[in-house]
Amino acid sequence: xxxxxxxxxxxxxxxxxxxxxxxxxxxxxxxxxxxxxxxxxxxxxxxxxxxxxxxxxxxxxxxxxxxxxxxxxxxxxxxxxxxxxxxxxxxxxxxxxxxxxxxxxxxxxxxxxxxxxxxxxxxxxxxxxxxxxxxxxxxxxxxxxxxxxxxxxxxxxxxxxxxxxxxxxxxxxxxxxxxxxxxxxxxxxxxxxxxxxxxxxxxxxxxxxxxxxxxxxxxxxxxxxxxxxxxxxxxxxxxxxxxxxxxxxxxxxxxxxxxx
Length: 260
Prior knowledge:
Blueprint: H1 3-17, H2 34-63, H3 68-76, H4 81-92, H5 102-111, H6 116-128, H7 138-144, H8 150-160, H9 164-178, H10 185-198, E1 203-204, E2 207-208, H11 209-222, E3 233-235, E4 241-243
Antiparallel strand pairs: 1-2, 3-4
Helix pairs in contact: 2-4, 4-5, 5-6, 8-9, 9-10, 10-11
């Protein structure tokens, strides 16, 4: 084999062995219509008004001295997010679901509490925005709010979303639900295995889903109560080499601490 052929073979092998990552792509968006532009502008105006009202509320609350007047204003002066969410949704629902309206629709769901506008926004997010990579922001919101429909929505997105990023997010969210009080840890582990196997290269904030699944599977299989602890190497308080395995069969207390 010539040197050139050998070099080509080595480079080809290295390229094949290198881990592949996938950069998420949102669905292509057609130019916004006048209806969409108007809905976005009206909803954005409501959101801006709410932000200004909340900023003013916090400034006035901070300026008041402790006492009954401050306590009353803390309740009566607070801007009502439900009212603002209703106004924003009234604008958004007149336009079709497009990527340009995703952030505003997420805002309505976040600020709309348990009201009908938040429920309607969630339905649109799950159906009309299923293929938008930006929908990834919905999953932590549902987790934070303990959304009753979270499992149902995640299962639907896992099956139907055209975005691999969103399908991966849905699988991970489902695994977290399975590790909850009413879940099945075995199903949760199976979902993480699926995530690591089928979506390893899909990028997310801070890395890839493969890296995320690998970390959680390692913790599940090696760091849970009753599991054999992985070997730990370091130095003891007298600066002598130390391994956890040399103390097998003994009760060992590990104290992890730091100093900043």
